[in-house]
Amino acid sequence: MAGLTFAKKTNKLMQQILLTIHHYLAFAVLILLAWATINGVMGTTGDKAWEDKHRKVNLFALIATHTMFLLGLVLLVLVMSNADMAGIMKNAMARKAYVEHPTVGIIAAILVTIGNAKSKKAIGNGKRFKSTMIFFGLALILVLSRLPFEKLF
Fold first, then answer.
1. What is the CATH number for 84?
2. pTM, entire model
């Protein structure tokens, strides 16, 4: 009995630590996605050359987004192990937190992955910047659409 209580407390503590990291990493993800998108827009509209710094911004945005996704996935598994899905689907705030937010996170991570791959493989500066602008921009819009602003600050 004491072991079960310890396990529950440990689970709650682990959830809280992961949630805190997930929360603060969101700021880095938003900044990096915005930075990559702005680089893409400026490179597409201007006559800029694709440099290593542009690749690095995309790479850091990719790493941050994937880390955020993995932390969110672990949190989702921990929380959903004892969840009542019927109750969650009936409650709009719970549905946003446990269904819509993770789904959009998955789609955003996929878009960032595709954008990074396309920008590396594209031939010509314009195509590289355009891929970055489109895919990282869409990921940024999706993340912003399901971000829990009420919990952000």
1. 1.20.120
2. 0.88
